[in-house]
Amino acid sequence: MGSGGLVVGEHPNIIVHEFISAGFDPDCVRRNSGIHLPGYYRPAKKWAVVVVDSGLLVAAIEFKSHVGPSFGNNFNNRIEEAIGSAVDVWRAYEEGTFGEVRPWLGYFFLLEDAPRSTKPVSLPTTVFPVDDAFQDSSYTDRYRIFCQRLLRERLYDAACFLTASGTGVTMINEPSRELGFAAFAAKIAGRAAEIHALKATGIHG
Q: 81, 102, 106, 167: which could form a disulfide with 61 (CB 3.0–4.6 Å)?
């Protein structure tokens, strides 16, 4: 499935554009250097894109990618980072760090589409049985399952999972419609509508 013109390497800029198109001033949409949010288990953590408007934390979005040839080396690290970052923000929110309005977190992941990322990977020997969902799974399958569960457990409010391959002309695919860019952009629009409504009532962070 195509991704509607998304260009590899430019996905943070496209997300910035989505927020600006949704009515936020460009100065509210910050990316790259110096964008840290305070945490609970650690002093602060850097996010790829942070949107703050009128004292409200509109959104914080993480961008990660994984390329071969070895896809097993950093798989667990990617999982642990994403879960840890979300848990840290939610715990800090419970302590009142971000005000009364619930934060909104997004996770955007790009995986290289290659033979080693699409073929089934053997499972290690474990003390207890592995979840059936991971049987005969590739790294593409595992990242898809991971992103779906981030949403279903409400660790993140939106998640986008894309795979990219090709020499010369890059081809981008969406392994799951639920995790496609259109769904991600729709959730940004929903968050924007919520924040604009809150601002209209005079609520600030």
A: 106
pLDDT digits (tens, 9 = 90+) for 34-56: 689 999 999 999 999 999 999 99
Closest CA to 162 of 192, 189, 183: 183
Mean pLDDT, range 52-62, rounded to an integer: 95
- 176-184 mean pLDDT: 96
Reduce the secondary structure of the chain to three states and give it as a string.
CCCCCCCCCCHHHHHHHHHHHCCCCHHHEEECCCCEEECCCCCEEECCEEEEECCEEEEEEEEEEECCCCCCCCHHHHHHHHHHHHHHHHHHHHCCCCCCCCCCEEEEEEEECCHHHHCCCCCCCCCCCCCHHHCCCCHHHHHHHHHHHHHHCCCCCEEEEEEEECCCCCEEECCCHHHCHHHHHHHHHHHHHHHHHHHHCCCCC
For helices 139-152 and 75-94, the axis angle rounded to 10 degrees is: 10
90 burial via Cβ count (<10 Å: 0-12, 13-18, 19+): middle
pLDDT digits (tens, 9 = 90+) for 135-162: 999 999 999 999 999 999 999 999 999 9
Q: Which amino acid is at 13?
A: N
User: b vs e for 10-31, b when ≥16 Cβ sit within 10 Å of the residue's Cβ?
Assistant: ebeebbbebbeebebeeebbbb
Residues forming beta bridges with residue 161, ordered by sequence position: 109
